[in-house]
Design goal:
The protein is an alpha+beta fold and about 130 residues long. It has one domain (about 5-110): K homology (KH) domain (GMP Synthetase, Chain A, domain 3), CATH 3.30.300.20. About 50% of the residues lie in helices and about 15% in strands. It has a 3-stranded mixed sheet with strand order 1-2-3. The longest helix is centred in the first third of the chain and has 22 residues, at about 5-25.
Length: about 130
Amino acid sequence: MTARRLARMAQAIRESVSSAILFELKDPRVQDVTVVGVDVAGDLRSARVRVTVRGDGKAQALSLHGLRSARGFLQSKIADRLKTRYTPMLEFALDDEFRQHLETARLLSEIEKEQSPANEPSSEVPTDD
């Protein structure tokens, strides 16, 4: 399978799943979910859907459980759109990359505050009057 076709399939799956979660899925457990990306296996038999969920660990676990329960529904939406011989079996996983980016930004902000102009030596040269 070419990389270009896999990328197109991943994009189509991401769009289908995102749209179905946003407009069609009625499960109250699935809230504040963002589909970050999709990794499709070379044989198109499976796909890992990477999601982020706003909230604490309990909200994330609840949303993941809801997504796993709705897997058949979401796969049917993908099958309607893709029209391929096989519909990929979906697997949902939390994407920690976004949280890591936020943590990195917070650390950089702290470092910047520590090195603010108030902590730098004065640029004025003392005069001998």
